[in-house]
């Protein structure tokens, strides 16, 4: 509180009171100390770990009484008067009110905002040296310098703003050098090296200022379903914003859905976050009106909503995905891969690295121009729309080594579930990966591998579990049946499930086939039908 002496405050801090504790109406001790020019308290609080960038939660009298359910508006007004009178000690009432009226709101003001209002260079300097961000805005979008009088405080803030921007740019550039975007994206996405490199290069140009700042960056991702198009868009958003929630995802296309009565979703989001990553999924299904709006977005870098408000979005990144021409791209990709494999077979392969290089295949310019371009033109019927796309990014079918990675990823997912839910350790031999990779369907991409693992592995686990064939905490090994077993069962190669004993002995499980009714039911549905326990193997839900 303002009335308490500095020594008391310092002693409380030393006694282990939380230096970031807030008043019930939302401000912190550091804000009060900054406003009252209590230099030793500011110093003690900062040394104790008070956050110089914490923002005030107090908005204004009326909102706070509503939020807190405090019916005594007068009570709040009195508290607020005391709060404001602290500033009045150092600043004339009318002058302060005009700069930050009680109705305008205090939300988001930091200790630095308050020290600036109190026109106290010493506290401002202390806060800045402790890491206060001079560029942080309050709820009204103002940095502390907006409230500075001419003189020392204004000069110090201006100087530190420059330093802060330089340091931030240096940190970001260093981070990008140390951990390039390509490497980050490859951690989350299997294969698609060409697509990753194209996207990362374009974003690097944008980040380093080598781009046309009059237009937003526009990508069109082409390729079959389940191949990583949407996932790559999400990872780009996570990279740009350190937060995947910033991806604004629009699926489907009711006519004129930007603006109009219920609309304005996109304008609202772009206003809140002008450098958002906006994903238009399956854009080939969009209504022509939506394409017209998108053309305005891409061409003019602005969007006018139904109420006539215009939003600038030159800094945004737009990613469209489409399955148009996916068959042609898949066939072309497979053909290129066959050619690359043939060349690598002909060469005397000296190291495994050379084999891997055959995976990185490039789509020819001639194919893009003579096959893809006409398909896109016929579909979108607008040259200017295609003309505004910075990069058309091609997603290719997976090669064998990528399929093995996909299978491993799925098996690891289920192994983790088996361990968590049943204490069962799941192991598999290398041929199992090859067998399951055979379930790949070029039209369904990674989803076909997911379904193959569920169908051939998880359904068996679920059936074995139901038939009480799995001892608690056992180790299970998956392997491929040998030729004798296949002949005996007169079936194509299947999987064998064995319980491995502590002495390394292996006992093959004799799993009775589930009834015809459930043969083709996925593992999850199967489990929900037969097992109403929460511990069932299968994904939650």
TrEMBL record:
SUPFAM superfamilies per UniProt: Ankyrin repeat, P-loop containing nucleoside triphosphate hydrolases
Single GO cellular component term: mitochondrion
Domain of life: Eukaryota
Gene3D superfamilies assigned to the protein according to its UniProt record, in alphabetical order: 1.10.8.60, Ankyrin repeat-containing domain, P-loop containing nucleotide triphosphate hydrolases
A GO biological process held by the record: cellular response to heat
UniProt keyword annotations, A-Z: ANK repeat, ATP-binding, Nucleotide-binding
ANK repeats mapped onto the chain: 25-57, 107-139
Family annotation (PROSITE patterns): ANK_REP_REGION (PS50297), ANK_REPEAT (PS50088)
Domain AAA+ ATPase: residue ranges: 215-354
Pfam family, one: AAA_2
Clp ATPase C-terminal domain segment(s): 398-487
GO molecular function annotations of the record: ATP binding; ATP hydrolysis activity
Listed name of the protein: ClpB homolog, mitochondrial AAA ATPase chaperonin
Lineage, top ranks: Eukaryota, Metazoa, Chordata, Craniata, Vertebrata
